[in-house]
């Protein structure tokens, strides 16, 4: 039957003493408490034992041949890997100077010989509890540091998103205001053709703003979703649905959209993958050469993933302004799916927008 008190913390303890009966006495007492105990007879053995498997606490004799306890403790405290292990000195030395040296070497406690079993047990319990609390505090600090890093990254992301939103909205809004003012002041003197062109421009930029708002709403929904149902995807109907949503733009810009003969089956979430295709193809058409030439394809990677890509015929690399809010949405989607997205220039071959999914 286990007679260990219910709140006594169990720990790994190393006993270092050159006297066999002391090692045996301490070992029996600590094992009865439920601790895991190892014993060694010298300082050199102690350092080797700690190096192999660091204990939670060390009971250390001072007077030992070859290397005394002071030196053992100093070496342990000098090593970042072992400096946090509490050391309780157990020694027959009783002068104040010797006790001071023990604490100066890095000991957390000092028990004189001959010792009382209950006293040793109480001090072991105390320092194991302190050790456990210290570990909890370190873990909490690490978690807090990670949370602060994540918060800082999110703040930077929000700042970048705010700048992107302002930039994406300002262009069409400026155009709408400008043409509306012109119509207000000059509509009576403008030709019917100019009037229609101005209205079309206002309508076009209003639709741009509406699309940006839809992207913001989608981004907000993405932030709230923790998990989605990942299934094998037949990519052909997903791409077809994305192109239907862009049919007006494709027709207006007379874009040439080139598709592969077949698509590999992958794992993903269909609605989000469709959004990615919409964002990439829209960007390729909007910022490609005139007329735009947009090629879609897929490449099976060596690691079993599939890289889906969209290549435009833009003469210059895509700038941050051209990537816009749509790419922010795409990055967040891929982040939620645990995958990556990339935008790179292929020189005079245009820009390549790509994302990866796992092959089914």
CATH third-tier fold name of the domain at 228-360: Heat Shock Protein 90
CATH architecture of the domain at 228-360: 2-Layer Sandwich
What is the fourth-level CATH superfamily of the domain at 228-360? Histidine kinase-like ATPase, C-terminal domain
Q: What is the share of helical residues?
A: 55-70%
Range of strand content: 15-25%
Low-confidence stretches: 1-8
Shape designation: elongated
Mean pLDDT: 87
Order of helices and strands: EHEHEHEHEHHEHHEEHEEHEE
Classification by helices and strands: alpha/beta
CATH secondary-structure class of the domain at 228-360: Alpha Beta
Count of alpha and pi helical runs: 10
Rg, rounded, reads 35 Å
Measured distance between first and last alpha carbons: 54 Å
The count of DSSP E runs of length 2 or more, i.e. the number of strands, is: 12
Largest sheet: 7 strands, mixed
Keywords:
Rossmann fold, Heat Shock Protein 90, 7-stranded mixed sheet, 5-stranded parallel sheet, 10 helices, disordered N terminus
